[in-house]
Amino acid sequence: MTSPVAETMRAWRVHSPGTRQARKFEQAREAVPRPGPDELLVRVLVCGVCRTDLHVVEGDLPVHRPDVVPGHEVAGRVVATGAEVLDFREGDRVGIAWLRHTCGVCRYCRQGSENLCVAPEFTGWDADGGYAEYATVPAAYAHRLPDGYSDAELAPLLCAGIIGYRALRRAWLPARGRLGIYGFGASAHLAMQVALAEGATVHVLTRDERARRLALELGAASTGGAAGVPPEPLDSAILFAPAGELVPPALEALDRGGTLAVAGIHLSDIPGLNYRRHLFQEKQLRSVTANTRGDARDFLDFAARHRLHVVTTPYPLDEADRALDDLAADRVHGAAVLVP
């Protein structure tokens, strides 16, 4: 049985994006939203803090919805359903992720690449997200969550985990291959565990000493500085840090035929590349654009079969601004999560 739905809730809104001193990012009390006919109303139990949220708050990503509530890693429970919803009921444990809606009719949707839809909508960018006590989600884009995890552990799986999983697939890591991971935060520490479970050797390169220690604890074969040289040539690499200056050293670290996947939605400018040194011998540079619902199902099924070690740093919902500041300054251990 679910508890009664409140009439009002706390929610953070991005009234004016900008840096810490310039932005207007405030919490207020407002009416709880009502679900549409095909939507769920979800009580937010935990919401992960993603670097994409930081890009929205700071203005790196252009405004799609004025005064939006950010947050797209929601672990919660259904407290109300729209009249057309058949697959969920009150009390169900569900997740809300980044991908909120696709058109279903463009050529990308028809070919199974809904992450490239020409008219998509995203949680916390096009529609209000989870930096609040309640949130809505179209039932067709809500996710069943695996058992055996706490709410705080589940929240980061819904973006950090899913996008890390897609980035790993985009990196075309061969069986028992050698993977390099550049940057080691919420997404990277989950993607590494998937790669290790599949037999890979993983080398982690990051500027943060505490992150290097965590990587070794989780099974990395080696760690080094962000622009360091791994101890062996790489079959594949994933760049999680939003730092374009790391693209050349990551490409240079690849063996012949290797692939570098860039996992972020935002990246600083990439310096000039030297064709012979960085791309010759059939090296590949690939981007990652959102994810499909199929990616989410595959990853959550993997998480159900393989118990992942999810490292989180909790913050009260009232301190969402501090959580973002800590994320920007690389002070977060693992994944930051907001707990209403």
TrEMBL record:
Residues 18-338 form the Enoyl reductase (ER) domain. GO terms for molecular function: alcohol dehydrogenase (NAD+) activity; zinc ion binding. InterPro entries: ADH-like_C, ADH-like_N, ADH_Zn_CS, ADH_Zn_typ-2, ER, GroES-like_sf, NAD(P)-bd_dom_sf. GO terms for cellular component: cytoplasm. Pfam families: ADH_N, ADH_zinc_N. Keywords: Metal-binding, NAD, Oxidoreductase, Zinc. Its EC number is 1.1.1.1. Its cofactor is Zn(2+). It comes from the Bacteria. It catalyses: a primary alcohol + NAD(+) = an aldehyde + NADH + H(+); a secondary alcohol + NAD(+) = a ketone + NADH + H(+). Belongs to the zinc-containing alcohol dehydrogenase family. This is Probable alcohol dehydrogenase AdhA. The lineage of its organism: Bacteria, Bacillati, Actinomycetota, Actinomycetes, Pseudonocardiales.
